[in-house]
Amino acid sequence: MTDVTADNAAMLLRMRDLSIRFGDSAQRLPTVDRVSLDIAPGEIVALVGESGSGKSLLAHTIAGILDPAAKLDATTLDVAGVNVLAEGWDGLRGRRVGIVFQNSRAALNPVRKIGQHIVDVLRAHTDGRRGARREAAIQALASVRIPDAVRRFDAYPGELSGGMCQRVMLALALAGNPSLLIADEPTTGLDVTTQAAILALIVEHARARGMATLLITHDLELARAYAERVVVMHAGQIVEDASVAALFTQSHHPYSRLLIGATPAAIDHVEALTGIPGTIPALDTQTPACRFADRCNRVDERCRSTFPMPVIDANGHRSMCWHPS
Amino acid sequence: MSALLQIAGLSKQFPVGGGRMLHAVDGVDFELKEGESLGIVGESGSGKSTLARLIARLADPTAGAVRFEGRDIGAIPVRKFAADQARRDIQLVFQSAGDALNPAYSAARNIAVGLGGSRLNTETRALVEQIAGEVGLDASLLDRRPHQLSGGQQARVGIARALASEPRLLILDEPTAPLDVSVQATILKLIDGLRRSRRLSLIFVSHDLDVVRLICDRVMVLYLGRVAEIGPVDQVLKAPRHPYTRALIDAMPGRGKPVILAGEATSPIDPNVVACLFASRCSKVNEGCGKQRPPLISVGSDHQAACLRL
Questions:
Q1: Interchain CB contacts (distance < 8 Å): A and B
Q2: Which of B181, B197, B202 best tests the A interface by mutation, with the highest count of A CBs <10 A?
Q3: What is the dihedral of CA B145, B148, B154, B156, to 10 degrees?
Q4: pLDDT per residue over A78-118, tens digit each?
Q5: Which of A39, A80, A190, B264 is exposed most, by the fewest CB atoms within 10 A?
Q6: Nearest CA in chain A to B188
Q7: Confidence band (pLDDT; 50, 70, 90) for B262?
Q8: According to the model, what pLDDT value does residue A68 have?
Q9: How many CB atoms lie within 10 A of CB B213?
């Protein structure tokens, strides 16, 4: 496919035609299918789609956390300047790539003090004395606005609220000074007030250090508010990739339109809410059809016989549909 | 419209050891008219779910009254309430539909529980199928167990079970929290449609103000078990009077620059009864806030707020 941007070298994520397959059956379609995506320094890109669209799988793959049963195939995958297809992820994780998971309490060791979690990361990735690491860990906790960081260093995850655990998780991800942050539903299940605080922190770090961020969310309103670009995934494929302004005012793909129409914040009356017909298709039969065909109101014969190729307009707005609007 | 439900001074305290008490719901007053829908919003720990359980009479209040059609059902012990007529009139739809259904029962038997038993005969089967149709659940799914259903289908079974006893008041505790937006949209439309077709009164617990705006006539904002503000949903969202309501609205994505609440929430364990509980996080706090509990006062038509700095 065509390169979206001119300055490829500066991209903190460069991905071309990445596919992920499970199992040997030739019948089974790839779970993630020919995905291409770039993220520039300082850019916050939201990856949206329903459960099962493959967004977490894609995000974990970028961070080098891949299910051993999965088969990865790509023409290019450069993560934070490293060609991971050739060199692997060793030395990248925890340092140049940080990741924040959805359920942070489950990601923390319940019998280890929160400060020790950060010290572990610092020990793995930096030199320095023990006392200096403790100081640096307290600094890291304070940098994500954990009140009373000196005292909280000795707290256990169970003693902290969900929002505080998420801040610890963010401090861990940022401790290695990553140039790319993968945030996988970082605020799902948190209160709106805590959500706003966590996302403000991510934006702040992106701005201050030019950190690129991939924000995985199912909430389009969140994407609209915090990201510059939105990538829409359906059934393992990127169906649209556009600036926030373009996506919300003139989305090309019918799936993007339906997702926006299902978002309460975008709607005045409950009658105007629209569900999305059907469910994400099972990927167990080889078919040349558009994966959205069975759920689409614009579907015709061509959609069922030929796969839509990506189309990119002058503004870099990319979509995969035979009948874009 | 007359008051279907009157809540007066309703409180629930839980012992947390050492003689200390956690004040989960703390002196809540409000009225719900017949056919009205009230949203209850607030952060985790604000007492939303406990309040829902008190009204549904799944928990005994420590103090206060739950008057349903003028009768104080709050005084009936939970154990005896199951046999009371009001049990059928007030139904609760739980947050995680999947966990709230009996995993060993088929969808049909789970719905039949709402009819008063889980045994299916020709007559109850017909009733179950009729209710399933009403909530958009295909009859072919009725013989499946909950784990064989999607999240949206489980939510529909939960709603169908609650509707089976023909309730007049339906209490929904975050019914769409774990669902995708696309599924949430269909469930919200279903709830709104049922409300109209069955003339239901609704209490809708949610952390999402946008959802409350779409479903509810009025909204109540809870903070640490107390009512911070209550009023018509459009009015409260457009012109909030309590600083906490303001903060909640500003924290919604896309509302400009969110005001990050400074400080930490006061502990709900044995709180200071002569201070505003929001004072530790409030941008408008002054000396007076530490000396008096702000009473709920009228700030407009059918609109009240509890703040000394209005």
A1: 99
A2: B181
A3: -80
A4: 999 999 999 999 878 778 999 998 877 888 999 999 999 99
A5: B264
A6: A270
A7: confident
A8: 87
A9: 20
Find the residue in B nearest to A195 (Cα). Answer: B251
Q: H/E element holding A87? A: helix A84-87
Hunting for tokens 């991209």 — which residue is that?
A: A11
Candidates B251, B187, B255; CA nearest to B41 is: B251
Tens of pLDDT along A221-252?
Answer: 999 999 999 999 999 999 999 999 999 999 99
- Going through A28-165 in order, the beta strands assigned E by DSSP cover 32-39, 44-48, 70-73, 76-79, 82-83, 97-100
Q: Evaluate if residue B53 carries a pLDDT over 70.
A: yes
Record the tokens describing residue B85, joined without a space.
């007529």
Residue B263 has pLDDT above 80, yes or no: no
pLDDT of B1 strictly over 70 = no
Q: What is the DSSP string of A284-308?
A: -S---S-TTGGG-TT--HHHHHSPP
B75-84 pLDDT per residue, tens: 999 999 989 9
The residue assigned the tokens 């799936």 is A255
- Buried b / exposed e over A217-249, threshold 16 CB at 10 Å, is bbbbbbbbbbbbbbbbbbbbbbbbbbebebbbe
Using DSSP, state whether A162 is helix, strand or coil: helix
Mutate to test the interface with B, among A273, A274, A292, A296 (most CBs of B within 10 A): A273
The pLDDT of residue A10: 84
Residue B160 has pLDDT above 70, yes or no: yes
Torsion angle, alpha carbons of B163, B165, B171, B172, to 10: -30
Nearest to A50 among B182, B209, B254 (CB): B182
State the average pLDDT over residues B238-250.
94
Put simply, the answer to whether B253 touches A219 (Cβ < 8 Å) is yes
Amino acid at B51: L
Strands, E assignment, B79-235? 90-93, 169-173, 201-205, 218-223, 226-232
A206 by DSSP, 3-state: which?
Answer: helix
In which element (H, E) is residue A202 found?
helix A192-209
DSSP code, position B74: G
Q: List the one residue out of A53, A100, A48, A103 whose CA is nearest residue A218.
A: A48
Residues of A with CB under 8 A from a CB of B: 50-51, 147, 161-162, 191-197, 199-200, 218-222, 224-226, 258-259, 261-265, 267, 269-271, 273-276, 279
pLDDT category of residue B291 using cuts at 50, 70 and 90: very high
B264 and A CB contact within 8 Å:
yes
Picking from A179, A175, A173, the residue whose alpha carbon sits closest to that of residue A14 is A179
d(CA B34, CA B168): 8
Residue of A192, A195, A263 lying closest to B181 (CB–CB) = A263
Give the pLDDT of residue A2.
Answer: 40
Mean pLDDT estimate for chain B: 93
C-alpha to C-alpha distance for A75 and B42, rounded to whole angstroms: 48
Q: Which of B180, B210, B251 sits opposite A264 (nearest CB)?
A: B210
